[in-house]
Please model this.
Amino acid sequence: MTTDTNQDKAIRDDIFEYASYLEFGELHFKVDNTTGLRACIAIHSLKRGPALGGCRFIEYGSTMDAVRDAMRLAKGMSYKAAICDLTLGGGKAVIMKPANMGDREAFFKVFGQFVDSLNGRYITAKDSGSSTADMDAIATETAYVTSTSKMENGLNGDPSPFTSYSVCRGIEAAVQFKLGQTGLNGIHVAIQGVGAVGYGLAKRVHELGATLTVSDINPESTQRCAQEFGAQVVEGDAIYQVDCDVFSPCALGAVLNDDTIPLLKAGIIVGAANNQLARTRHGEILRERGVLYAPDYITNAGGLIHASAQYHKSSEKTAMEQISRLYGVLLGVFDRAEQDGKPTNEVADAMAEEKL
Amino acid sequence: MTTDTNQDKAIRDDIFEYASYLEFGELHFKVDNTTGLRACIAIHSLKRGPALGGCRFIEYGSTMDAVRDAMRLAKGMSYKAAICDLTLGGGKAVIMKPANMGDREAFFKVFGQFVDSLNGRYITAKDSGSSTADMDAIATETAYVTSTSKMENGLNGDPSPFTSYSVCRGIEAAVQFKLGQTGLNGIHVAIQGVGAVGYGLAKRVHELGATLTVSDINPESTQRCAQEFGAQVVEGDAIYQVDCDVFSPCALGAVLNDDTIPLLKAGIIVGAANNQLARTRHGEILRERGVLYAPDYITNAGGLIHASAQYHKSSEKTAMEQISRLYGVLLGVFDRAEQDGKPTNEVADAMAEEKL
Model:
């Protein structure tokens, strides 16, 4: 789901107005003066199941910035779970990172008690700024937590390989739909960002016969792809102009914008990054240019499926099978977008709403 | 508890800042676009037990006005339960009254589901703007509700007789402390407001031998007191200037202010109204003038004790015994205030804080 950010100020600055606008739901706040905890848990929808969503721990300019972030992201989680046919609702937590942090373990334990008080309506997970160790601290206070360090049925706290796989399945679906080709033999994929997820993706598509071009701010990461997969390496913004079949944004958000879209030569975009479209309207711009865009919240759903599997103590095999089925979900979105002459991001949102 | 309202705007306008300032606690928000419900439940403290507090259903100028009201009142409930030695925490709910109300029963049912989702951390009750019928609608969705129409062990939803009794016990304690007299024989009590609570108080003190002066905006209410108890009747602000032993505000809040205090001839103030002191500092002004003020949140605690008894299915007898013990609570406050040379309202707050 993409949300444009130019809503009326009166709506943006009022909790009830903004919640109503996003069709909430519930919001829960906890303040603890002893540890300095200031946390907000946003639960957008519980219709499909408990709300599993990450816990952001970053600095915010204001309380309303933090609350809006929680609400916007929670709604995104509802859509993601719905379109991917997961039995999960949509929720997200934000914790305002204090200027001076005291005992971090005690801090996250109090957050764990807060999560526990909601009796499983919300299940927390690692997100920007929070760590596996934080999840372990939370787990001393509540069972409603995932992405801990504890191994369960071969699943550990690292979702990267699962996200890599969901992006790979997205590329396979898009290549099938757009080029009529089964498998990735001879397909040229340009990956922006080859950290944990991008590297795993490079490995997978290489094994399926694709050729690679990669970029990353870290030269060691690109070097490894060159050595192991024979990838071409380009610097910085050159990745947008690579003459390839698939462009795969696996680093930053908002990389599909007015500046970059005219540069792209790829006919397919499938990546792991969150919020790839700078604005909702960029989905329409891509459609007009004949570029097939796979909505990011479907293609990177491997991470959520991993967290859900860890929480439900199901196996890696089950999680991987669930991720594999995203192929069919995406074909459904592509089909309907073509039939209705609409951008894929809007079609995905509409299909998610039908399931909510 | 009295809270001055001139806090820094930056604190007042920020949920986390204001909550931290009031030493919260938790806040929960629910939005339901179908019924139009916009509700906030503030839980200040759970240390002594579940947070029992009323549900206000009134129009607010803004969301933050409503949220601040909930937080301020919830903190007051914490103090009230603590000073009265009740095994309750402190909480309050506010619902923003919509301009156009649809199906009221459905509206309060959704609120009931919201209350239920907190699993008994908060127990709701009737308050300004909400009715017994609303509580009955809530009760179809949750067990965490009191002041319903259902009779339990002779206790029904009307707390007035219990509040009358707690005020009466307050007058007895103050007369004992200040005048050294046991019982109210010959004591002159001036009651401002003889609605349900004030009338019940008039009846009680009359039976104990007191003489009465009463005022009310409703002439039928004063007439009844004149006929049944031989009460003198005065109009409007004349009640402040009655040459009596006890002034008992049982109508409006903030009646002890810079304008009224110089008019008072009574040496004792004990009433049922909430927030009788316009500002915290008016407690000190009364002390300097030698007036014994019984903190309102103790003297009107009969209502809370009634709600708690109804919720816990205990008997009227048990509730009345508990109310009777407020006599000792007040003597403790009066003693310490005299020893420390401090106003009774500040001493009561300090004693409540020691129990929180």
Notes: Chain A touches chain B at residues 14-17, 19-20, 23-31, 33, 38, 62-63, 67, 96, 114, 117-119, 121 (CB under 8 Å). The first helix of chain A runs from residue 9 to 12.
